[in-house]
Amino acid sequence: MRRVGGVYFILGCILPLLVGCSLYSNALFLPREQSAEKDFEEKKYHSAITKFEYLSINHPDPQKRQAFLMKKGLSLYLLRSYHEAEKAFRDYIALYPNGMYKAESEAYLTKIEALRSEKERNYVLQREQMKGDVQLLTQMLERDPYNAQVHYDLANKLWELGKYNEAAQHYLKAGEIDAALKETELLKNRLMINGKGDTVPITPELQKELDREKNPVVIFDVHSYYQRGKRDYLGASKSYQTVAGKVRNQSKNTIQKISISVNFYNLQHDILDTQSYYVGTMGPQEVRAFLVKGQNYDNLYNMDHFECVPSFQ
Q1: Class assignment of domain 13-116?
Q2: How far apart are alpha carbons 186 and 166 in whole angstroms?
Q3: CATH code, residues 216-311
Q4: The whole model's pTM is what?
């Protein structure tokens, strides 16, 4: 090691190595980039969002990270997920206050605000129209109280206004007058008999509760990372793609024999590996962590994405 102008000559050897490492790191992310862009071009925005999010966090090139975060926001916007798109654009501005896509992010935020204002105006107008319809239908029933169709139409308007108990009464009355109305899909989806034998409306809150009981096991806070093998702790090679997350029993009941299966896929959506984690029995609202390692593959970097699938008894 010798000095040249006060600088050690060894720097001339290290710099090419650093450049080579950077190029290698970028090359490892190339399949993910191509896959994300392909999904975006084919309008598979749900899949593209997941990939752009990963790339915006993990890609070694800071300029590309900006582009991927912007593409994530644009994908959400095109899906009309305006709340999530707004968050993505605001995250971009917060992370990159002088970023190359700042003006574009601000333009989309302006569009989202305009759409929100228009939606609110339309909502107010629609509710006023529905209130007028309710008044008119109520007057019709005063003149003709046994008109099943008017009871049915009034129930629909009351339901849209969020007056579910009143709507249920008119649905039941319509069914009493005209038995054929009881068999409509709309009535079957809006009324049910509870445990006491009473007919009750399936309000949005009740529907959420029914959905929770139907799909009680929820997986969340999922992330993945590469991990070295135990025998290679001094080296740089990576042996596993590890997936970690949490599972919640959102039911009011105890769930038994809960398992989490993690499927690892390549770019063509072929399964490269499947690993399972046995959670066991969970009480109501209980949360537990899980972790699996994908290890059956020819090349670790062929793994492009994964999915977590719960099962239970």
Answers
A1: mainly alpha
A2: 16
A3: 2.60.40.10
A4: 0.52
